[in-house]
Description:
Keywords: Aminotransferase, Transferase. It contains 9 helices and 8 strands.
Amino acid sequence: MLDHVTAVRYVTPLREGGSMPGVVEGDDLGTYVVKFRGAGQGLKVLVTEVIVGELARALGLPIPRIVTIDLPSAIARYEADEEVQDLLNASPGTNLGVDLLPGSLGYDGSRPPTPELAARILWLDAFTANVDRTWSNPNLLTWHRQTWLIDHGAALYFHHSWPSKEPNPERFAAQPFRADDHVLAGVATDLAGAHASLAPQVTGDLVDQVLDLVPVEWLETTDHLPDAQTVRAAYKAHLLARVQQPQAWLPGGGA
Ligand SMILES: Nc1ncnc2c1ncn2[C@@H]1O[C@H](COP(=O)(O)OP(=O)(O)O)[C@@H](O)[C@H]1O
Ligand SMILES: [Mg+2]
């Protein structure tokens, strides 16, 4: 399970983020960037944050700690900003918290990661179909001279078709990835090497461990996916099908 904390204070919204995440203090004295379950993007982006974030961590990529966080209703009651109050009121129960990296800077290319780390990050994005790491939206932070990954809500977008369509792992496995706009396209060199070291680590067991971290109340069921177990199995099937087929999605085809 992810660590669980309770919010004690809502500090400020991060309005540059599309989903209006907020800075929140927890009862463990931690400070978190919280993504709210009641934001317009819905629960699926929270699921993706955990799956891709924890996969990244398991593969050794720098990613801030992820927790689940409860918001007591009193926190919304004393919030003066109406827009924030609506968001908090719409978010009772489990929300997503990411350790705030104090003093971190948005990635601007002036302190790039090593080509090796860049290749691993680009590999992760190609594998999980994360289209949200471009110059207009790098979703990388520089902190303690290191590049850190944030914001994986846009990855695994196949799940947005689930309410109406049957899950189709083969389709996702064959989906190409365009790396031209990726913020690290000019830094990452050896993608085939990244694939060779990372892909074998993406085993059924690892994927199960990661999926087990997703709070069950975030997993939305459909006609085709009637319970949490089948939803988890669908994510697993998509990831394992895709990792076998780098010729379809890895820039350069993995050669
Ligand atoms: N862990 C963090 N530490 C410090 N700043 C963060 C952290 N996570 C997000 N931010 C800041 O908040 C902004 C929005 O967060 P992000 O996760 O990208 O949400 P959105 O889905 O709204 O784009 C980021 O661009 C960054 O400036
Ligand atoms: Mg973002």
